[in-house]
Specification:
Layout (H helix, E strand, L loop, with lengths): L1 H23 L9 H28 L2 H23 L17 H14 L3 H24 L4 H27 L11 H8 L11
Length: about 200
Amino acid sequence: MKKLMILVAILTAMASCQNSNDGADEVIVAPLTEQEKADILFLREEEKLARDVYLFSYDIYGQIIFDNISNSEQTHMNSVYTLIAKYNLSDPTEGKQQGEFQNQVLQNLYDSLASQSSVSLLEALKVGAGIEDLDINDLDGNISNTTKADLLQVYSSLQCGSRNHLRNFVQQLEGINGTYEPQFISMEEYNTIVDAQNERCGLVY
């Protein structure tokens, strides 16, 4: 009986050790706050809005800048989706066609920007600069709403890409004697961005 009790104790200890080792391989993901969830879901659609507007403008004017940056915005969307998948959120863009949005504010904004873009190439380039201006500003808010390293990494990379896009749109505008004045970020930040060279942004650009 004593030997049996010792054997049971050994087996129990081994099982406990195995369970402990199994748990060591698990990655514990801290839950998102409601604000963090809202920011991620809105950002996913906001990047879609940028992509869809640029696709719309490319179809009208055939300017390579709209094609190139729409592809970049798809990369941005993919980056945000990694967060959606990681935290098991419902993707608001699922099943949505070009120009369709779950968020009504973004739907209204898309309709307005597409209408403005259809006026002329000059207006379409101004719309592009305005979208990137807005994105940079909104990402500042997202960054201030979290301390999670994975979210901050994605937000910072996207913001870097938006700065590059803003520079490119402004350069194109100046090439046809157009101008843009920032509507969301400060004039000081705007000047700092457009006076600098394009940056390397990691997985997004």
